[in-house]
Amino acid sequence: MRSFHLFLLLCAAVLLPAACTPKAPATGALILGEASGLDPDDRVYAALFHQEGDVGTRVQTDTLRDGHFSFRLDSLLPEGNQYSVMLIRYHKVERGGIPADVVNVGPEIYLEPGVTVRVKGEAGRLRNARISSPVRDQQLRQRFIRKMSREDWNAMNNLQARRYHVTYQLYGEEHTPAQQDSLRRLAQEDLNTSKEISERLSQQTLRLLETEEIGQYALWLMNSEARFATSNGRDNREALLHLHERLSDDQKATREGMEILQYLNPVKTVGSESPVPDYDYVDKDGKTVRLSDLAGKWILLDFWSDGCGPCRKAVPELGAVSREFQDRLEVVSISLDKESLWRRASKEHGISWNDWMDPNGSSGSVRSYGANGIPTFVLISPDGIIRDILVGYGEGRLRRAVQSALSTSGL
């Protein structure tokens, strides 16, 4: 992107700005950004992500120069038009599995072919940036956030940015035990404060969804609210069922629209020593498959998403477990992503064992196991009884669980 930046600098130096406004590709888009308030010693790059459901796939990066960044897309991806921008600090040492040192989260950007979008704001609060765009969904998003409490919105953005930085410090840098304890306390304090602010923002969001035009951003917000409708002691199900009626028939038919009702309908949860529920899944050939098809062998279920770092870290061990115990155990990875992303990620990670997708995503079968996060692993005995449910991943954990179960059963 160096030549593109050179073009902009030459324009600024010798020509009128109006004559130098770069033009977006007819089938793509152009994003011109400006972030203020960065430390001059910070080396920061902007990352553009394409959003598919809960997952953001990195599309381009650009190093900030005097606070400026740009993205030129020759074509737009077919799986939705929602993108987002994140600012991230460069570090001398980058290790796999270490979270990025993120300056900010957001904002959501909606693109259409041929458009130029301008983003301008403070680096630490770029989600609140002024965004100039002819895209209707972007305009609706900007109008929506302008009506939110500026104090709460800024406070939440500041907390999120600090939480990213503290997480990086915890896992990306070396510290004494005392320093680690101090960082963990700070992270917990921020988490507690963010819950209070999140509740206030949630109530504001529900009120605005009563009156604002429902575009893609509002639909996405409604889906998010439905997912956590009964968390932290709240119960917003009735309000969200009422809001769901505001959706058009086309919006109700989208995956996001259908997920809203699924999140709001309670599911029967199961635990250890319970029979495993038998849901319909889809395999790589597009066929409907069920866990009962594998009856008679031990099963290790793996609920995952490509946007989940620990999920990706578990892939090598899942492969090793699948090979080591192949005569007694079936490993089944169940993706919660949309189909296009699932197929792309499965190929990228080389998943060679049972590779299925839940058409209902995170609003589907994973909820039956009471999981509050992913990856979630479920160990099932040959008679269809759940023997263990593991949430989260640590190296060697899966092999130990499988080996212990097989040894106890005498297999």
Q: State the distance separating the first and last CA atoms.
A: 58 Å
Mean pLDDT: 86
* The CATH fourth-level homologous superfamily of the domain at 2-146: Carboxypeptidase-like, regulatory domain
What would CATH call the architecture of the domain at 2-146? Sandwich
Q: Class of the domain at 2-146, according to the CATH hierarchy? A: Mainly Beta
Number of strands: 15
Q: Please, how many helices?
A: 12
Largest sheet: 5 strands, mixed
CATH-derived topology of the domain at 2-146: Immunoglobulin-like
Strands side by side in the biggest sheet? 13-12-11-14-15
Approximately what portion of the residues adopt beta-strand conformation?
A: 15-25%
Q: State the order of secondary-structure elements, H for helix, E for strand.
A: HHEEEEEEEEHHHHHHHEEEHEHEEEH
Low-confidence stretches: 12-19, 92-98
Structural class: alpha+beta
* Radius of gyration, taken over Cα atoms and rounded to an integer in Å: 23 Å
Query: Any idea what the shape is?
Result: globular
Fraction of residues in helix: 25-40%
Report on this model:
With 411 residues, the chain is of the alpha+beta class. Among the domains are: 145 residues, Immunoglobulin-like (Sandwich); 129 residues, Glutaredoxin. Helix content is 39%, strand content 21%. The protein is built from twelve helices and 15 strands. The strands form four sheets. The protein has a five-stranded mixed beta sheet with strand order 13-12-11-14-15. Strand 2 and strand 3 form a beta hairpin. Helix 6 packs parallel to helix 9. The longest helix has 33 residues. The chain is globular and about 70 Å long.
